[in-house]
């Protein structure tokens, strides 16, 4: 097949126009992901494990008490390790340290501030997050794709108009990828002991505005222009 007849190049009777369509807009987050890390440390291994289990259960009880507002819970890390003495000969265990990491998704932001405050007050418990995101089936993704296609069509029509002609047919539409929604906000890391002098009030956590984007490439044939 000669280059003049190849679909990627078009022909004099069916000139080819290739354009890119892009869309980007801001939308409010739909999911807040938080990490909860509980630890325990002691000389006795069994006692350390018991403390770790008790604190892990306490954190899970708080999270589960919010029902459907926390639809997903995952134990991300579980570890128990001996700490050896730096002095003396042999493997002398000085203490044991245990850690459990829980990852949670929160979809009801009305309870997020109260939930994080309650977790932060638990014994030897540390929080990080929230990391804001959209649901996989969020309408925002479809809207970004629609806007990208509309942008490609607008550009193609502008090029055709500049040539004094019009679009004849769409020959190809390709999804060239969508960026993951971008978020620059987080409340960082918080740690609070159960024996604090005063209880913390609910944190004032505002949902992030996320940038959502999509890109497509489109190929059209043109009505042959008079040049």
TrEMBL record:
Gene3D superfamilies hit by this protein: Protein of unknown function (DUF541), domain 1, Protein of unknown function (DUF541), domain 2
Signal peptide limits: none
Transmembrane residue ranges: none
Top-rank taxon: Bacteria
InterPro entries documented for this protein: 26kDa_periplasmic_antigen, SIMPL/DUF541
GO biological process, one term: DNA damage response
This protein's name: DUF541 domain-containing protein
Organism: Streptomyces bauhiniae
């Amino acid at each position: 097949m000669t280059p003049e007849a190849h679909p990627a190049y078009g022909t004099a009777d069916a000139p080819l126009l290739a354009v890119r369509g892009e869309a980007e807009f801001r939308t409010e987050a739909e999911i807040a992901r938080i990490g909860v890390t509980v630890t325990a440390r002691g000389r006795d291994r069994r006692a350390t494990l018991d403390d770790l289990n008790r604190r892990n259960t306490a954190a899970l009880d708080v999270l589960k008490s919010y029902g459907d507002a926390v639809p997903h819970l995952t134990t991300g890390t579980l570890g128990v390790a001996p700490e050896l003495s730096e002095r003396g000969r042999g493997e002398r265990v000085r203490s044991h340290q245990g850690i459990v990491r829980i990852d949670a998704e929160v979809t009801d932001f009305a309870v997020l501030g109260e939930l994080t405050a309650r977790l932060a007050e638990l014994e030897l418990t540390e929080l990080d997050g929230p990391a804001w995101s959209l649901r996989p089936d969020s309408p925002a993704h479809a809207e970004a794709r629609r806007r990208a296609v509309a942008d490609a069509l607008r550009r193609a029509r502008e090029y055709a108009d500049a040539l004094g002609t019009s679009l004849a047919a769409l020959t190809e539409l390709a999804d060239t990828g969508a960026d993951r929604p971008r978020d620059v906000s987080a409340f960082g890391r918080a740690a609070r002991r159960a024996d604090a002098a005063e209880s913390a009030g609910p944190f004032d956590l505002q949902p992030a505005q996320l940038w959502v984007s999509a890109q497509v490439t489109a190929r059209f044939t043109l009505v042959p222009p008079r040049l």
